[in-house]
Specification:
Rossmann fold, three-stranded parallel sheet
Length: about 110
């Protein structure tokens, strides 16, 4: 994703694969203006909803976007939407992802 977003939007990206990495990079993560999460992060590990909750518990002030193949009716996805997350259904076209990130960045102080 950095290969796509950094040159298109002139932003710096941090890529983390697991929720445990959030703790290690908490300062950087919590200063971010946007978090792009996937619901499924692999078997037997905390998922994107856990990452979402980690951010919310720490009063993350940025925008949260989910990339997911799960339906919006999935209870976890619906809960995240109620709490302010935006959902982008996979597969997402690069131009749609760039537009969503730009729109989110424009609305974050």
């Amino acid at each position: 994703m950095p290969v796509l977003l950094e040159p298109a939007l002139g932003v710096e990206c941090i890529c983390l694969c697991h929720v445990a990495e959030f703790e290690k990079r908490a300062r950087d993560v919590l200063r971010a203006k946007i978090a792009i999460l996937d619901i499924n992060l692999g078997p037997n590990v905390p998922d994107g909803i856990d990452a979402f909750n980690w951010l919310m518990d720490r009063r993350f002030r940025g925008k949260i976007l989910f990339l997911t193949g799960h339906a919006r009716t999935n209870p976890q996805v619906a809960s995240a939407v109620k709490k302010g997350a935006e959902i982008l259904e996979k597969p997402v076209q690069p131009d749609k992802l760039i537009a969503a990130v730009k729109r989110s960045l424009d609305n974050v102080p």
